[in-house]
């Protein structure tokens, strides 16, 4: 069998890699995988048409600024799908890019099209699912409450679990070794996680740096750790060049990918709290039971458009899956250094409030069940079989 996969950001790259592993377990013979992916997918022999980072863009303003370049890549990718004639096209998240590719492919072929990661119609723009049904046949959902939204719009959908529940968590020994390596002692440790997209870190990192300075003013003993994503290391280095405070900068390029990931997990487990961008990282923190504060902002035009369409009072995944509001979040205009610093200091004082919500989230996402990547592969194969 042959599958055309398109991932456009680090979280999608992880999903794609887990899906490829799932196919390896579910198929009695090797499958061929082509398309667009990142380092994790390429590490499994996947050959990307072009660097994934070129399409890793979020926000209306950012997309408009690169409209013609993205349009060219969309056309190129769609034509590659049509030329390859795969058993299925599997688009992984990044709807701004992937759904446009899927629309073109559907207009010119009957290739089965599967979208991995259901759109957040429960949060904003509910009509997206209905529009998707014109060219998407099947959806793989990461969250347990999403399938009814998809089936109501006319697509089949399976909840397959979230890969975060299968990722290793650092041991207490690893956390202790991390603290010893960086001479942290018993000092409180706060992680700084300003995102994995260039558009995110350029907007959030300066705000987060100011937040850390405010925390330091009130709690001089607090130490800061910034585990940088490979895709944005250079940008973060440039932003931090003028910052005066001490911070432990974890550069993944200093180690092998496996060592870098283990180092990051040890940092997560060793930390007493985290200041993080909204997104999948909140689930990684929950897996390590690291209390967090979420901050996120976007361009002015994105604020105006999205702010009028949001249908939920939280965008933090831990809050949504656990059906609580225990994780503080500050989105858009409220994402200020003062608000963020106050919330982080409160989390350091009372970290236990979030523990129940984090544990409940992991259980609901499939912890202890069949690996999500394998469940996703099984869902794809079942759908293709039924379609035939």
Rounded Rg: 21 Å
What global shape is seen?
globular
Q: Roughly what fraction of the amino acids lie in strands?
A: 5-15%
Q: Can you list the strand order of the major beta sheet?
A: 3-2-1-4-5-6-7
Please describe the topology of this protein:
Layout (H helix, E strand, L loop, with lengths): L1 E6 L2 H17 L5 E5 L2 H4 L4 E2 L11 H6 L1 H18 L3 E5 L2 H14 L4 E4 L11 H5 L5 E4 L5 H7 L2 E4 L12 H10 L7 E5 L4 H21 L4 E5 L5 H8 L7 E3 L6 H14 L2 E5 L3 H7 L4 E5 L3 H8 L9 H6 L6 E3 L5 H13 L5 H10 L7 H16 L1
Helix pairs in contact: 1-17, 4-5, 8-11, 9-10, 9-15, 12-16
Description:
This protein is an alpha/beta fold and 388 residues long. The chain has helices spanning 10-26, 39-42, 60-65, 67-84, 95-108, 128-132, 147-153, 172-181, 198-218, 233-240, 257-270, 281-287, 300-307, 317-322, 337-349, 355-364, 372-387, and strands at 2-7, 32-36, 47-48, 88-92, 113-116, 138-141, 156-159, 189-193, 223-227, 248-250, 273-277, 292-296, 329-331. A 7-stranded parallel β-sheet has the order 3-2-1-4-5-6-7, with helices on both faces. The protein has a 6-stranded parallel β-sheet with strand order 10-9-8-11-12-13, with helices on both faces. Helix 7 (147-153) links the parallel strand 6 (138-141) and strand 7. Helix 1 packs across helix 17 (372-387) and helix 9 packs across helix 15. The longest helix has 21 residues, at 198-218. It is globular.
Label this structure with key terms:
six-stranded parallel sheet; 388 residues; alpha/beta; seven-stranded parallel sheet
């Amino acid at each position: 069998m042959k599958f055309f996969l398109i991932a456009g950001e680090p979280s999608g790259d992880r999903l794609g890699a887990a899906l490829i592993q799932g196919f390896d377990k579910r198929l009695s013979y090797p499958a061929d995988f082509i398309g667009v992916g990142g380092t994790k997918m390429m590490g499994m022999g996947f050959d990307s048409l072009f660097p994934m980072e070129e399409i890793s863009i979020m926000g209306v303003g950012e997309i408009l600024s690169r409209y013609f370049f993205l349009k060219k890549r969309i056309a190129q990718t769609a034509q590659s799908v049509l030329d390859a004639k795969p058993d299925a096209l599997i688009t992984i998240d990044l709807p701004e890019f992937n759904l446009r590719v899927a629309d073109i492919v559907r207009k010119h072929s009957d290739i089965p099209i599967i979208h991995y990661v259901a759109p957040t119609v429960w949060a904003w723009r509910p009509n997206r699912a209905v529009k998707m049904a014109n060219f998407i046949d099947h959806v793989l959902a990461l969250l347990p409450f999403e399938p009814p939204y998809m089936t109501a719009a006319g697509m089949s959908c399976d909840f397959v679990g979230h890969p975060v529940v299968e990722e290793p968590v650092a041991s207490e020994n690893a956390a202790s070794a991390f603290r010893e390596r960086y001479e942290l002692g018993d000092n409180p440790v706060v992680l700084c996680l300003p995102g994995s997209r260039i558009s995110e870190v350029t907007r959030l990192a300066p705000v987060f740096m100011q937040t850390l300075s405010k925390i330091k003013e009130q709690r001089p003993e607090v130490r800061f750790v910034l585990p940088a994503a490979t895709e944005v290391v250079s940008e973060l280095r440039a932003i931090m060049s003028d910052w005066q405070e001490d911070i432990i900068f974890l550069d993944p390029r200093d180690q092998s990918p496996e060592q870098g990931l283990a180092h990051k997990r040890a940092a997560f487990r060793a930390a007493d709290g985290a200041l993080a961008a909204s997104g999948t990282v909140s689930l990684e923190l929950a897996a390590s039971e690291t209390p967090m504060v979420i901050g996120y902002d976007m361009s002015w035009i994105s604020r105006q458009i999205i702010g009028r369409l949001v249908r939920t009072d939280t965008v933090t995944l831990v809050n949504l899956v656990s059906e609580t509001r225990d994780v503080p979040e500050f989105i858009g205009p409220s994402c200020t250094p003062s608000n963020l610093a106050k919330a982080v200091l409160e989390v350091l004082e009372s970290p236990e409030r979030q523990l129940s919500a984090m544990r409940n989230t992991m259980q609901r996402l499939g912890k202890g069940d069949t690996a999500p990547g394998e469940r996703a592969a099984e869902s794809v194969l079942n759908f293709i079989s039924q379609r035939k």
